[in-house]
Design a protein that fits this description.
The complex is a heterodimer of chains A (325) and B (325).
Chain A lengths: L1 H5 L3 H26 L14 H8 L7 E3 L5 H7 L3 H8 L33 H15 L6 E6 L6 H12 L4 E7 L2 E2 L2 E2 H4 L16 E5 L3 H16 L5 E6 L17 H8 L3 H11 L5 H24 L15
Parallel strand pairs in A: 1-2, 2-3, 3-7, 6-7
Antiparallel strand pairs in A: 4-5
Helix pairs in contact in A: 2-3, 2-4, 2-11, 2-12, 3-4, 3-9, 5-12, 6-7
Chain B lengths: L2 E3 H15 L3 E5 L15 H9 E3 L4 H12 L4 E6 L9 H8 L2 H4 L8 E7 L14 H5 L5 E3 L4 H12 L5 E6 L6 E3 L14 E4 L4 E5 L2 H15 L4 E5 L2 E3 L3 H11 L2 E8 L4 H13 L8 E5 L8 H7 L3 H12 L1
Parallel strand pairs in B: 2-3, 2-4, 4-5, 5-7, 6-7, 10-11, 10-13, 13-14
Antiparallel strand pairs in B: 1-8, 6-12, 9-11
Helix pairs in contact in B: 1-7, 3-4, 8-12, 9-10
The chains are: A alpha/beta (325), B alpha/beta (325).
Chain lengths: 325, 325
């Protein structure tokens, strides 16, 4: 890892830290607000998986595309989304990304190529494949598309269809599987022949790599290679990121199904604390650097909450808008 | 005015629109060198090549997903599903993704997507190749539903759909593909979505009929005319949005209504039209609103069974006579 780290400037490294910390604090704030009953509906938090979204999106351009999942807050932030509009959306306010129509599971920002979080497991990979098709075959640009999805999606038919299609036509898609080992409360090994998912990609002739999803530098490195291949027209790459979610499937759900020792082991591999430690021990940053970032991030989150709370609710009649152009 | 087969009218419209718009492409099973499973795409592949007339794997979810993803990111797409009976394989991409993404993104996403598929029996296609599934999509907000009956309508409605900027699904009746009729010699000929056609004027009973049933209703009209009953025959052409105004105006004039579609009567869109008439014109009615459609069983294979299950001219005659009693 140190070799990879040496390639990045201090500012770049601290930016990765800041992005991860922004996701973490956003999600912690959402958990707090949800527990207080301030947010309608339900939320799926990304805590523990931050290194994946941040590592991958760090090597994307603003005009590249991503699709996301029901656990999508991290992807929006990593791609450059506005946390104020995200928070407002979670409050169901008119100033939210979706004008209060989508909520947590449908946050979209077309201006940064974020084609939508998605409430349907494996709903995103087909759309990412299409965005890649349009870029490579019709509009003739070098844009790439990343499909983020969980281990659960790999047992859905459209996932296999997307892998086949992207590989057949060498489309610029990067399939990023966030393997946190649980689909809601069911352990992957109970419903799949193996808890290693990367090997499935071989059936589609897609180069695959399995990486520590809690190591932002490691994720970034494989993503950089994948994006390079995609831009050169060499086709899709499959990246399996091994990780763990620190919370239940959704807020309010107690993950009693986790093995306690395993849970503790993964908590000790926290992607943010780990990265901080790495930078400190390599003398690439000091406590003061982190404190300044943490303060800034806290301010941004507090401002997002203020913005959301002070924003007006939608006029109920706006529910009838936005179906068609 | 030139004469064309229904399928040629569809093909020539696609050709003209593709010549005008380099971002428009077509994807589907066997649409390339094979010329389309129903023969619709013909020589389009020879003219436009692989990327714009794309032979897809038998992956209906990805045919829609690919078209959708591209259509959200600067392209315009036609997805062809050769038999409407296969729509179940890609239903999620249609009703949860394509039909909702504009709405759930608060109006950010634009979906330039036309899904062309087929419907219809009377060809011994049996249970999984004979259905008319139009009603499924009428039920879903966010997608427009078109059911052309003539070559000219196929042309004008497809062009309207391609220029609409919203998801549109077009059901083409297999039995009508070889039907020859006049088409306008105008490369910009459009029939606005949501505009019905009064096919025959009459004062005694309004008959609303779609696709192949329009021709059966025309035959019924001749039989009834000989009996002294003049029906007013209306083809809505677009089922959603429905031209309520034209239908209600006619029903208010005749005081009677019969709705004919090939799909099952139970839960069919005829029930919706009947409800609209009951809601908005009940004081004008001089008889019960009748519905004619398939009997409540799957569509069987043997011609004698199929003809018993699907609506026939005499069923329409009988329904009109019943409401005239």
């Amino acid at each position: 890892m140190s070799e990879q780290i040496d390639k990045l400037s201090k500012i770049h490294l601290l930016n990765l830290y800041e992005k991860m910390q922004l996701i973490r604090r956003f999600e912690e704030k959402v958990a707090e607000l949800f527990a207080k009953g301030k947010l309608p509906g339900f939320v799926h938090l990304y805590i523990g998986q931050e290194a994946i979204a941040v590592g991958v999106c760090d090597v994307l351009r603003i005009d590249d595309f991503i699709t996301s999942t029901h656990r999508g807050h991290g992807h929006v932030i990593a791609k450059g989304g506005d946390v104020r509009k995200m928070m407002a959306e979670l409050f169901g306010k008119i100033t939210g990304y979706c004008r209060g129509k989508g909520g947590s599971m449908h946050i979209t920002d077309m201006s940064i190529g974020m084609l939508g979080a998605n409430g349907i497991v494996a709903g995103g990979p087909p759309i990412a494949t299409g965005a890649a098709y349009g870029a490579a075959k019709i509009r003739h640009t070098d844009q790439v598309a990343v499909a983020f999805f969980g281990d659960g999606a790999t047992n859905e038919g459209p996932f296999a269809e997307a892998c086949n299609m992207a590989s057949a036509w060498k489309l610029p898609v990067i399939f990023v599987c966030e393997n946190n080992l649980y689909g809601v409360g069911t352990r992957l090994g109970r419903i799949s022949p193996s808890e290693d998912i990367a090997s499935r990609a071989a059936a589609f002739h897609i180069p695959a790599v399995s990486v520590n999803g809690n190591d932002v530098i490691a994720v970034r490195e494989v993503a950089e290679e994948a994006v390079k291949r995609a831009r050169k027209g060499e086709g899709p790459t499959f990246i399996e990121c091994k990780t763990w979610r620190h919370r239940g499937h959704f807020e309010g759900e107690n993950p009693t199904y986790f093995n306690k020792e395993e849970y503790q082991m993964w908590l000790s591999k926290d992607p943010i604390a780990g990265f901080r430690k790495t930078l400190l021990s390599a003398n690439l940053a000091d406590e003061n650097d982190f404190n300044l970032i943490d303060q800034k991030v806290n301010q941004v989150i507090e401002e997002a909450v203020r913005f959301a709370e002070n924003s007006p609710l939608p006029d109920p009649a706006t529910a009838l808008e936005d179906v068609f152009i | 005015m030139p004469k064309m087969k229904f399928m040629e009218a569809v093909r020539e419209t696609i050709r003209q629109e593709m010549e005008k718009d380099p971002t428009l492409f077509l994807i589907g099973e066997d649409v390339g060198p094979y010329g389309g499973e129903q023969g619709v795409t013909g020589d389009l592949w020879q003219q436009f090549g692989d990327d714009r007339v794309r032979d897809a794997p038998i992956s209906e979810a990805l045919i829609i997903g690919c078209a959708l993803g591209a259509s959200m990111t600067g392209c315009k797409a036609i997805a062809e599903i050769p038999f409407g009976d296969f729509l179940g394989m890609c239903m999620d991409q249609i009703y949860n993704q394509a039909a909702k993404i504009r709405y759930m993104s608060g109006g950010q996403a634009q979906v330039n997507l036309v899904i062309r598929t087929t419907e219809g029996g009377y060809v011994s296609g049996a249970e999984q190749h004979s259905q008319s599934l139009v009603s499924w999509f009428v039920h879903i907000p966010g997608i427009k539903v078109v059911e052309p009956a003539t070559p000219a309508d196929a042309m004008g409605l497809l062009r309207a759909a391609l220029r609409d900027g919203n998801p549109v699904i077009i059901f083409e009746h297999r039995y009508l593909y070889s039907l020859v009729d006049d088409v306008p010699d105008d490369p910009d000929f459009i029939i606005p979505l949501g505009k019905a056609n009064i096919v025959r004027e009459g004062n005694d009973c309004t008959v609303i009929a779609t696709a192949l049933q329009l021709y059966k209703a025309k035959e019924a009209a001749e039989i009834l005319a000989r009996k002294g009953i003049e029906i007013e025959l209306i083809d809505p052409r677009t089922i959603d949005p429905l031209d309520e105004e034209t239908i209600l105006k006619s029903v208010k004039k005749t005081g009677r209504a019969v709705i004919v579609h090939e799909t099952w009567v139970k839960g069919g869109y005829g029930a919706e039209i009947a409800a609209i008439i009951a809601d908005k014109a009940i004081n004008y009615l001089n008889g019960p609103v009748k519905r004619v459609g398939a009997k409540n069983v799957p569509i069987p294979f043997s011609p004698v069974l199929e003809n018993y299950v699907l609506p026939q001219v005499e069923d329409i005659v009988r329904a009109v006579e019943e409401t005239m009693e």
